[in-house]
Amino acid sequence: AKVSNRGGVLQFDRYSLEQAKGRLELLKNLRAAFDQEQLFLMYQPKIDIQTGNTIGVEALVRWPLPNGDLVSPGVFIPLAEQSGLIIRLGEWILRTALTELRSLNENGWPRLEMGVNLSVAQLQHPALMDMLKAVLSDTGVDPSSVDLEITESIAMRDMERKSQLISEIKALGFKVSVDDFGTGFSSLNYLQKMPVDCLKIDQTFVHAVNEGNGRDIVELIVTLGRKLNMRVIAEGVETEAQANTVSELGCDEVQGYFFAHPMTREQLHDWLATRSH
Ligand code: C2E
Ligand code: CA
Ligand code: CA
Ligand code: CA
């Protein structure tokens, strides 16, 4: 089903029984794949634009089909959110990413950070704090090396509650980033209230940074981040020209295919071995 959002009202365009069945089937297969431990994480490097050093990686979940194709998390994460599966799946993702971080930290990469996406459905779950504490104590990682990336969304309109939650997460020692900044519902009002460490400029702005007024928009976001004492990351950097411009504009970190694609843990180990740190 095509779901769009107009004025806070969810609209279902041409929502058919066929599509509903398709979604149910997909969810059934997703649950089965998850229970059979077929899902895995890939890791995409985040690079310090001034020094070229690898600061950390972002964990990105993958669902491989029996034929080898990968289902995009853009497709199945929303499904997992709507069905509630995201609670168990999200915990598994965090646990797996932090276990990998611990191993990286102990095997030659002591300062490497791990970015993990946290969905709004997880944020709203009453057991979130207990889950975060349990995963921290089980994996023994330093929470200041973990960056939880949160995308602003209509799903949580209660800003007071959300900013309080983010404060609690930060009190545990985690870093918090606003993902996809500049799209959707991340407003100035939001930034003022949320005690976040980092802004990730949405890819669409990065792709357009050398077109029309694209440069001015990115420059404005960087200035905003600076004023609010936040680090600014440009994600989705695909070309050298984009890398040069976001560097000139003062972004702190970059992420994107121009530097490195998401990699399996084995590929990441090989890749890191060739890099300065
Ligand atoms: P995101 O958090 O904004 O992640 C960045 C997406 O951009 C990733 O897609 C990444 O593979 C892709 N990407 C990285 N560099 C480039 C580039 O240079 N050009 C282009 N065109 N794309 C680039 P992916 O892995 O398909 O994930 C899509 C979205 O699914 C993520 O967007 C995130 O919102 C969600 N997602 C992925 N993994 C997880 C997860 O473990 N938990 C949760 N809750 N959501 C996840
Ligand atoms: Ca992200
Ligand atoms: Ca993003
Ligand atoms: Ca996203």
UniProtKB/TrEMBL annotation:
It comes from the Bacteria. Residues 23-276 form the EAL domain. This is Diguanylate cyclase/phosphodiesterase signal transduction peptide. It comes from Teredinibacter turnerae (strain ATCC 39867 / T7901). The lineage of its organism: Bacteria, Pseudomonadati, Pseudomonadota, Gammaproteobacteria, Cellvibrionales. The chain holds residues 468 to 744 of 744 of the full protein.
